[in-house]
Write a structure and sequence with these properties.
Elements lengths: L26 E6 L5 E5 L12 E5 L1 E3 L3 E6 L4 E9 L4 E7 L9 E5 L2 E8 L5 E7 L3 H8 L25 E4 L11 H9 L3 E7 L22 E5 L1 H12 L4 E4 L1 H10 L8 E5 L14 E5 L6 H9 L2 H13 L10 E5 L4
Parallel strand pairs: 1-17, 3-12, 3-14, 4-11, 14-16
Antiparallel strand pairs: 1-2, 5-6, 5-8, 6-7, 7-10, 8-9, 9-10, 12-13, 13-15, 16-17
Helix pairs in contact: 5-6
Length: 342
């Protein structure tokens, strides 16, 4: 399969610039993953499609203020974007401008925070070593900016609107945006319906920002991201699978965590790195249905949702969403991809 096989036309005005208020008033496109049958609802109607015994899996990662602005010893302005923490001082980062930030370059952010470039990465990034006076997380909260995707140009007045209401594990460079639609009240309604909720963690990293550069999608290499599954979550997921109950992933990051941690057919507790790349032809072991947003053309995420359904059904569904003027991408509307017969 070629990258161009996952293209579609999207008018610029359908890219959402602001989050919906309230969160659960976004629109919800429900599509049968086998037949392509579509229903148009609102996100607060999600409970109409859930039933007792369903297990919903959420990613509880929390976005860090990952964008830092500093100066080189030459006085030139530079930007450092935190991706993955390697240890107490070292981070994998993206830098701008890249050509001016070679190994040995020193960057000053404030009197209490600086770093030095110590290595290059395989994906054009850098590894930097921070020096700081105080608690790193507190300094970062003061100096860093919450990163928004480049297609969002409007300022975000409330930083919490780029966090899920259940976020708690700091470490992501971007939000697991399918979760942005949930409110605490909606989560309570889901529980009241007899559904089970479990939380896993995957810290969103470089893969979110990298386009597919290879012409043939099988030649694309995903960047590694770190995930954690608690023993309690693993037990609940394995039990649901054994009992034949539906496992519903909230977001593509939850999908990747489930399928990576359950690669051997049983959900394993613990933490690990994954570069799993899911595209049509993939056989899902745990995920039956998916709550997700509308994804960029030719993206690995569009390929993932096409694997759960089919490329033809997903492209047809996206064409309907464009025609019906759904809002796209991180602050946009949602889809529920489900087998209505199961």
């Amino acid at each position: 399969m070629l990258v161009k096989d996952f293209d579609y036309e999207l008018p610029q005005e359908l890219i959402a610039q602001h989050p919906m208020e309230p969160r659960d008033h976004s629109r919800l496109l429900v599509v049968d993953k086998n037949t392509g049958a579509i229903e148009h609802r609102h996100f607060y109607d999600l409970t109409d499609y859930l039933r007792e015994g369903d297990l919903l899996v959420f990613n509880d990662t929390r976005v860090i203020p990952a964008r830092l602005h500093g100066t080189k010893d030459t006085g030139a302005h530079v930007e450092v974007f935190l991706l993955t923490r390697k240890d107490a001082t070292d981070w994998e980062v993206l830098v701008r401008p890249g050509k001016k930030l070679q190994v040995g370059a020193k960057i000053i952010f404030s009197d209490e925070l600086s770093c030095e470039v110590i290595a290059h990465t395989d994906f054009g990034g850098r590894v930097v070593r921070f020096k700081y006076d105080g608690i790193f997380e507190e300094i970062l909260d003061r100096l860093g900016e919450t990163p928004l995707p480049p297609y969002i140009t409007a300022p975000l007045e409330d930083k919490e609107r780029y966090q899920t209401v259940y976020s708690r594990e700091r470490g992501s460079a971007a939000a697991p945006t399918a979760g942005l639609h949930f409110t605490k009240e909606l989560l309570e309604k889901i529980k009241a319906k007899g559904c089970e909720e479990v939380f896993v963690t995957l810290h969103v990293g470089l893969g979110t920002f990298r386009p597919v550069s290879a012409e043939n999608i099988e030649d694309h290499q995903m960047h590694k991201e770190f995930y954690t599954v608690s023993p309690e979550a693993a037990d609940a997921i394995n039990k649901a699978k054994a009992e034949g109950r539906r496992i519903i992933a909230v977001g593509t990051t939850a999908v990747r965590t489930l399928e990576a941690a359950g690669a051997d057919g049983a959900m394993k507790a613990g933490g690990n790195w994954t570069n799993i790349f899911i595209f049509p032809g993939y056989k899902f072991r745990f995920v039956d249905a998916l709550v997700t947003n509308f994804h960029l053309p030719q993206s690995t995420l569009l390929m993932l949702v096409s694997a759960l359904s089919s490329r033809e059904i997903m492209l047809a569904t996206y064409a309907v969403a464009v025609k019906e003027q759904y809002r796209f991408f991180s602050f946009g509307d949602a889809m529920f991809i489900v087998d209505r017969q199961k």
